[in-house]
Each structure stands twice: as C-alpha cells, then as structure tokens.
Amino acid sequence: MTVHSAPRATLASHLIAEIDAGRIGQGLATVILAIAATTQRIAAAVGKGGMIDILGSAGQENVQGEVQKKLDVISNQMMIDGLSATGHLRALASEEMDDLLPLPERSEASDEQYLALFDPLDGSTNIDINAPIGTIFSVLKAPMGALSNASFLQAGRQQVTAGYALYGPATQFVLSTGKGVQAFTLSRENGEYVLTAELTISADTGEYAINASNQRFWESPVQRYIAECQAGSTGPRERDFNMRWTGSMVGDVHRVLSRGGVFLYPRDTKQPPKAGRLRLMYEANPMAMLVEQAGGMATDALTPLLDLVPTGLHQRVPVVLGSRNEVERIVRYHAES
Ligand code: P6P
Description:
By secondary structure, the chain is of the alpha+beta class. It contains seven helices and 17 strands. Strands 4-3-5-6-7-8-9-10 form an eight-stranded mixed β-sheet, with helices on both faces. Strands 12-11-13-17-15 form a five-stranded mixed β-sheet, with helices on both faces. The mean pLDDT is about 95. Bound molecules: 6-O-phosphono-alpha-D-fructofuranose (P6P). The site of 6-O-phosphono-alpha-D-fructofuranose has 11 residues, from helix 5.
C-alpha cells in the first residue's frame, strides 16, 4: 500500500489558508506572491556570482551616500519590474531610490491598494565575499488621493505584512501577515517556497550580535551590557555568552528568529548626526514586526520600534531586538542611565 504523506504546505497554499481564514485579502496575497517570485529571480542572479558581470561597484552612490553595488541596482530594478503589475500597489519606496516611485493607476483599481517598501539587497558588502545577503520588504495600506513620500510615513504597527528573503546556503522566505512568523525554503527542483518552520524567539539567550569595532562609540548602557556579556561566568551575568556578526541584518535577524539571540545596532557617536545605521522604514520596522510576532521585542532602546512615528523615508534609528529578557535588560540599563 502506498502511503501518500500529506503534501507540504507551500507559500501559495499558506496564503490561500490565510484568505480563507479572513486574515488577508486576495490583493495582499497577490502582492506577497509577486515579492516572493521576484526574490527567486534575485536568488538566481546572486547565485551566478562572479560568473556574470554583476559583482563589484556600480560606480554610483545611493541617497544614503553609500556606494551602490551592481547587484544593488539590478535587484532594485527586479523588484520594480516584479511589483509593477500586481494591480494592488500604488507606489514603491526603496533604499536605492531617493523618492517614491508611483505605479500606473489601473482604471479598475480594487479596494485593496497598498504601498511597498524594500531594501532590495541588504548586506550588499557581503556580495563579493559570498556571505549571506537578503531582500527585506514591508507593505502598508495606501491612502486615497495624491501620493508623496509622506504617504509612506506610517508607524510600523500599520504594516499589513513584512518579511525577507535570505540568500544563504538555502534560499528562504520569511513572512508575517500578523499571525506568527512562517519560514519557507525554496525547493530548487520545482521552484516553490515550501513551508519549513514556524519561528518563535526564546525569551532568554546566550548569544549577542553587535559590530564590536564600534565599541568606543557606544553609549554607556550598551558599554555596560556588552562588558557584562564579555565578563561571562566571571561577571555579574554568571554565564558565558557567544557572539556572532554576519554584516547583513537579514542574516543576523534570521539567526535570532531561528535560535534566539539579541541583535544591536545602537546609537553611537561614530557619525553623530545619524541616530543609528539602520533605516526605520525598510529595515527596522519589517524586522520589528517579525520579531514581535515571534514573541520577541524590538526597540530603539527606549521605545518599541513599531510605535515610532516616522519623520523621513530614509531616517535611521538605533535597533535592539530579539530575546525578550535580554532586550528588557538593555532597555532597563538605558532607563537607569
Ligand atoms: P557594519 C548592511 O549594510 C547593513 O545595513 C545591515 O544589513 C547590517 O546589519 C549593517 O549594515 C552592518 O553594518 O557597520 O557592520 O558594516
């Protein structure tokens, strides 16, 4: 007798179940599937590495003043191409574009109209060394009427979905539509994202992630927290800690979602006008939605990230996120100082 094990859920079947449960509409499902399909195309391009002329610098800077890699520019265009015809997106915003990109209005536009924001290739300094990189996305409801950059300046709690693709040993697509966090793994045989995990973050952890070369620029609460972690079992924490830093927020946050941990890119005095390095709208907010949905905590060390009222499309914020008990400790140290 042949026992047919139930077929594994896919991103498509998961979204159909979300529609049937009344948690999302067809329009949002269409947008998510378009994002997912585009990440598969980006994965294919990234996977070619140096075999085609897509590594190295594009010889231009983005609005952040950062030198763009060729793959930054290519993946940004792939996201634009992949998201322009869903019929449910009014405009796009990207780390790689100074301003919003309005999309052609459709006469029969449905009532489900959204705005999409993305960092098309996060961690792009990792491209040339074949280290983890990813695509981060966030979707907000689109207001009626004329659009401007200000239309995007909605608090993170307004996100209707958020997630990322991680281009690592496996290509993974991690998503939340407001009911937990689901992780899908790309089956290269049939080109489908297969549901492989529901991700939750343990409240405690023995692993932290921070760029330790910035130590002299940190504020005192972060100095204190990291020094205690480094003191390990001989210090006030009376336990040893491990440290990881991948140079890609997607890589570090995926590790935190997968096995717990705390990730910090804190405010520092390295480049004073900047409040931090990471961007609120298309890095911190989508990751904060995932982390909270997985039972963790995400703050700027004072306020939950999802409660911040944005002031600019490319504004930067300090980020402390991950295992709840560690983030609460860091917040407490800031309050005490
Ligand atoms: P540093 C990548 O450029 C990024 O925006 C995040 O993905 C990553 O966490 C951070 O910057 C790395 O910063 O200072 O270690 O290069």
